[in-house]
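Predict structure. Input: Major outer membrane protein, 312 residues.
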Amino acid sequence: MLNLKKTAVAVLALGSSAVFAGTMGPVCTPGSVTVPCERIAWDFGVQALYLQPVVDHYAGYYIDTLGRYHYNAVEPDWDWGFKLEGSYHFGTGNDLNVNWYHYRSDNNNHHFLIFYPGDDVLPTGTYRHNFSVEPQWDAVNVELGQHVDFGEFKDIRFHGGVQYARIKHEFRSNIVAGPADFFPVTGRRDAYTEFNGFGPRIGADMTFNLGNGLGIYGKGATALLIGETEFRDGTNVLAGDFAFGRGDRDAMVPELDARLGATYTYAMPQGDVTLDVGYLWVNYFDTQHFGLTRSDFAIHGPYAGLKWVGSI
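Output follows.
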C-alpha cells in the first residue's frame, strides 16, 4: 500500500510539472535535398536573341558637333542573334551540355555634322561624318551539370566546364567635305579589333517551380579566359596623308553572365517541350583595345526559345 501511494504522488507531481511547463510547440521538419532518379535522355533547344552590344573604344562620346561642344554617341544598334544547344542526360541528374551563342550586326550607320577649325590637312568648315560599326560575338560553352532538388518547388543545376569566346569589331568612318567654297575633301578611317580566348567556367541555374508546368529562374556563371587581343587602325586623309597602326597582346579576361526568365513545360508522350523567355546580361572585362584605349565588351537583351527533352 505504501508503494502504491508513493507511485501516485510521483505521477501527480509529474503531471503538475507538465501543466506549468506548457505544451510542446510545432515540430520543424527539415526539407529534403535529393537528386533525380537515374535516367538517360537527350535535349535540343534553339533561342532567338535580340541584343545590343555596349562598348566604348569607338563609342561613347566621340564627335564635337558644329562647335557647340556636344558629343554624339557612336554605338551599335539592336540586332538579332541565336543560341543553339544540346544535352545528354545520364545518371542521377547529370548532364553534358554544349551551347553556342552567335550575334552579328552589320547595319549600324550613323551620320553627324561636325565643325572642324582647320589645320594644314583640312580647311575650316562643316563636314559630314558617316560611321559604320559591325560587332560580332560568338561563345561556345561545354558544361557538365548536376541537378539537385531542394524540396518540392526548388531545384538548382550546378555546372562547370569551359568556354571559348571570339569578339570582334569592324569600324569605318568617312569624312566628306560640306562647304561648297572649299575643295572637296574626303577622309577615311578603317579599324578592326578582335579577341579570342579560352578558359574555365562555373555557374548555377536556380529554378522555382510554380506548378502546372510554370517556373521562374535566375541563372549566373563566370569564366576566366586567356587569349590574345589585337587591333588594326588605318587613316587616310586627302589621299596623301596615311597612317597605319597595329598591335596585339595577351589578355586575361574575366567574364560574367546572368539571366532571369520564366518557363512553361508541356508534357507529351514523345517528350517534354519547354517555352523559355527571359533577359540576358553578359560582360567581358578589358577585352579589346585600340592602341592605349581599352574597353569592356558587354551585350544584353531579351530572348525566347523552345527546348525538347526526350527519354531513351
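DSSP finds one helix and 14 strands in the chain.
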